[in-house]
Design a protein that fits this description.
The chain is an alpha/beta fold and about 375 residues long. The chain has 13 helices and 14 strands. β5, α6 and β6 form a beta-alpha-beta unit. The protein is globular and about 55 Å long. It starts with a helix and ends with a helix. The relative contact order is 0.11. This is Malate dehydrogenase. It is an enzyme of class 1 (oxidoreductase).
Length: about 375
């Protein structure tokens, strides 16, 4: 065979090999491509929503390889602002964002959603009684629960952010009975992250080296930020936070009140409520729930109480949880001292009172 024929044959073999590899790679990438996840954000034109939706679109919540379609819901007076948010999402050209639904229709917003982040709610205004605020939110969450019940995807995961978050989540659970109770949660990860941040600053260590604080109870000023089981990674291994801080008066006093009242402090400083940190914490909550918590680490989530730690059942209460395969599990057998018991009981009592108030609004 002449040199020319040999070269021609070699060229054909090379092209065939390259094509085979290309199509094999294409087949693998196609098979590995993830299905699009539909994420609902209510109150999407508000401050938290505006901070949250670009985080979701960028992959902060579900990972850098998870395509999403955003469903954004807000009230009719906010329709123009909501459309403005949609325009900005389009203009940002997020590669993972495969579509945007922006609507004031709760049914349209809920169709096919896999994850629902309930940011919208009725805020307490000057001169309003607590029951008035509760009544407004009961009405909102009853309506949204009904829409999710009928139109969301099976096994939809729900995170309630709007205050009173624990009780709003409970109302949503009551009126969406086909959604498993384990799929309805509320946000206490913001409080959890605030606690991590305070310990990090006190010890002058990286916040990523602090773990296993616990937020017990209500997302309110009665919550109990607990460091009795928390540790810090040091060059000589993990050390208990209490040992390193070596100041029980601070840990049982200023630390707790700082975390409890951090939201009010931010309002005083910004003249606006927490938005960026709330949005970031919502991403943390969903990411760990869906993708799992690191081995040996727990986080705080408001979940439906099963009576663990002698907490009243039938309320949404913040517990330490680990997450795996899209499911959360309450961390068991943590030692509870008398001081902690009193704090946990007090915040639980407030949640029972809120539950009774909410149910009175229903009747």
């Amino acid at each position: 065979m002449c040199v020319r024929s040999l070269l021609h044959s070699h060229f054909i073999v090379c092209i065939a090999t390259l094509l085979t590899r290309h199509f094999a790679s294409y087949q693998i990438s196609t098979e590995m491509a993830k299905e699009v996840v539909r994420v609902l954000v209510t109150g999407a034109a508000g401050q938290i929503g505006y901070a949250l939706v670009p985080m979701i679109a960028r992959g902060v919540m579900l990972g850098p390889d998870q395509p999403v379609i955003l469903h954004m819901l807000d009230i009719p007076p906010a329709a123009e602002a909501l459309f403005g948010v949609k325009m900005e999402l389009v203009d940002a050209a997020f590669p993972l964002l495969k579509g945007v639904v922006a609507t004031t229709d709760v049914v349209e917003a809920c169709i096919g959603v896999n994850i629902a982040i309930m940011v919208g709610g009725f805020p307490r205004k000057e001169g309003m009684e607590r029951k008035d605020v509760m009544s407004k939110n009961v009405s909102i969450y009853k309506s949204q629960a009904s829409a999710l019940e009928k139109h969301a995807a099976p096994n939809c995961k729900v995170l309630v952010v709007a205050n009173p978050a624990n009780t709003n989540a409970l109302i949503l659970k009551e009126f969406a009975p086909s959604i498993p109770e384990k799929n309805i949660t509320c946000l206490t990860r913001l409080d959890h992250n605030r606690a991590l941040g305070q310990i990090s600053e006190r010890l002058n260590v990286q916040v990523s080296d602090v773990k296993n604080v616990v937020i017990w109870g209500n997302h309110s000023s009665t919550q109990y930020p607990d460091v009795n089981h928390a540790t810090v990674k040091t060059p000589s291994g993990e050390k208990p936070v209490r040992e390193l801080v070596a100041d029980d008066a601070w840990l049982n006093g200023e630390f707790i009140t700082t975390v409890q009242q951090r939201g009010a402090a931010i309002i005083k400083a910004r003249k606006l409520s927490s938005a960026l940190s709330a949005a970031s914490s919502a991403c943390d909550h969903i990411r760990d729930w869906v993708l799992g918590t690191p081995e040996g680490t727990w986080v705080s989530m408001g979940v439906y109480s099963d009576g663990s730690y002698d907490v009243p059942s039938g309320i949404i209460y913040s517990f330490p949880v680990t997450c795996k395969n899209g499911e959360w599990t309450i961390v068991q057998a943590l030692k509870i001292d008398e001081y902690s018991r009193q704090k946990m009981d007090a915040t639980g009592a407030e949640l029972v009172e809120e539950k009774n108030l909410a149910y009175s609004c229903l009747s």
